[in-house]
Amino acid sequence: MTKDRLTLGALGGPQTFNAKAALLILEHYPEFGEIIYFPTSEETMAAAMRNEVDAACGQEQTSKEGFHTGMQARVSAPGSPLHVIAETTQHYHCSLLGKPGAKLEMVRQVFGHTGSIAHSRHWLEANLPNATIDTVGTNSLGAAQSVLDDDGSTASVGSPDMAIEYGLTEMVKEIDDGSVVNYWAVSLAPRFSESPDRVVVAARFREKSGMSDLISTMASTGFALQAVYPRSSGAVLYEYDYVFRFRGAGSLESVRAVLARCSAARLAGAWQSRE
Fewest C-beta in 10 Å: which of 39, 168, 230, 237? Predict the structure, then answer.
């Protein structure tokens, strides 16, 4: 790998859902050249904040639960140094993984990472009403190993590749109802495109007019609002920190001109989608 290619932090190992998203980012964005794995999401993000990796891969939002509040809070926080520099979308394809020879009726406990459990909870509760559902604090690799070491009464939620890696059985496939997840690569370095088709703006507003002016002015530059995430500032009633996601076609120069007239706003991402 040449030094001019970026490193991307990801959770767990190659079999995790986060790592699969990171692999897609490497496939679609050639400026990335290597994935470095960390045991927890917090450590992955911390590595990016310490500039130990050039960017961290994390969920932006999901079809099942909407915005990932942790990521949105990090980007929207006043003075945040984080910038979105790439993104990718993937279907989760969660499977219920069991010990070889175990039967579904034997399962009394299900482990999984926070995201995989959230996407599969509806199926788990409907089909395994007598099983406890537990989230692991690290990643799904440990959950898979626990299943392998148990007597067949434990299962985990993971990817098909996880089953191959650990010698587990896919007891049931596709238990997440077709969940789709969008991931961001966030970095301390802006890496803005001169002609972006995706723009992310972070801002704090107390008055609705400021937010309306930002949205309408961005539209005049060719970028329509795609989504907005609000988070209470915790300081003043009706004051919120926002993440605005815009989609369209325009110039970085025109976006900067808009934000130069809005002291409450920060350009948190301007890139070209590669999907």
Answer: 237
